[in-house]
Amino acid sequence: QLPAGEYFGAMGLHIFSVVFHYFSGISAINIPRASLFYTFPVSSLIVYCLLKRVFKRKNFAIFGVYLLTFSSLGFSNLMYQYWPSGLTYIQGLMIFLLLFIRLQAFIKERPPNREVIFVDIFKTYIPVIVIFISALITHSLIAIIILISFVWIYLIYFFIN
Fold first, then answer.
1. Are 68 and 75 in contact (CB under 8 A)?
2. Neighbour count for residue 21 (Cβ, 10 Å)
3. For residue 90, what are the contacts with CB-CB under 8 A and spacing of at least 6?
4. Where is the chain membrane-spanning (predicted)?
5. pTM for this structure?
6. Could you count the other beta carbons within 10 Å of the beta carbon of residue 90?
7. How far is Cα 150 from Cα 157, in angstroms, rounded to an integer?
8. Are 99 and 92 in contact (CB under 8 A)?
9. Taking residues 74-94, what's their average pLDDT?
10. Measured distance CA(97)–CA(91) in Å, rounded
């Protein structure tokens, strides 16, 4: 049975907080108190891994993480406003990192053939699908915005190629 009573009485909070409250017994109002302790380190670690792959130098990656975490250019405003949006942003960054790692193997002088494309396809896309479904359950609006951003990035890549 769905926890519909808790969902409708949650003052507009998303279904993820209701499910969290239903299974853990912690009030949905108290969840944001601990969200800053995991959002900044996890998001910084994912951004560091992504920037290290982009720049190939550790110093640039650390500087990029510093800029994105502690300046007004970055995602620090998103991390402390509403905890499901911060969690969805982290999940979107993880999806982008997984897809970037997979796409990085295909960017060569010659286009890849079908055997190269289908190698380890399930190893990448099953976690991406699971993370996206959890992001959609966590905060659907942010997840859809991130999905549209990924689609635009891929469309630009395919039009250029």
1. yes
2. 20
3. 39, 42, 43, 46
4. 7-29, 35-51, 63-83, 89-107, 128-160
5. 0.71
6. 25
7. 11
8. no
9. 76
10. 10
Inter-residue contact 20 to 28 (CB < 8 Å): yes
Please, which residues have CB within 8 angstroms of residue 161's CB and are 6 or more apart in sequence? 111
d(CA 75, CA 80): 9
Token couple for 113 = 């053939």
DSSP string, 131-155: HHHHHHHH-HHHHHHHHHHHHHHHH
Q: Can you tell me which residue has the tokens 């009573």?
A: 5
Q: How far is CA 146 from the centre of its chain?
A: 8
Q: Identity (one letter) of the amino acid at 134?
A: S
DSSP character at residue 72: T
Q: What's the token pair of residue 4?
A: 């519909």
Taking only the tens place, the pLDDT of each residue in 28-63 is 667 666 666 777 788 888 889 888 988 888 999 999
